[in-house]
Amino acid sequence: MTETPVLDTLGAMTAASIDQFSAAPDALILIRLAALVAVDAPTLSYLSQVGIAADLGISIEDVQNVLVAVAPIVGTARVVSAARKISEAFGIAVAVVAEELQEFDAAED
After folding, report:
1. Residue span of the structural domain in which 46 resides
2. What single string gives the DSSP state of each residue in 57-75?
3. DSSP code of 66?
4. Predicted structure pTM score
5. pLDDT digits (tens, 9 = 90+) for 46-64
6. Quick one: DSSP state of residue 24?
7. What CATH number is attached to the domain comprising 60?
């Protein structure tokens, strides 16, 4: 057993999902975001998708469109909760990148 069995399992599940998904990769991420909204997922669940979304060129408008699309189904409370958590996840991602850049700069000096 590894030191991170839960993360390893989640990684394997994600890889299998990607392998079996036949539409565009950005569609997969938008569908995942919709699912996270529907289950009122925690911020860290959104964080796992934010980096991938950015890498695929998914815009804020794309994310807003997902929230608009699911609002009639999941309700206002879940959409507002998701918007807050997505913003928090984005903020965490930005902070992590900024820290990594600082460490990189410090290592070069």
Report:
1. 5-108
2. T--HHHHHHHHHHHHHHH-
3. H
4. 0.79
5. 988 888 888 889 998 999 9
6. -
7. 1.20.1290
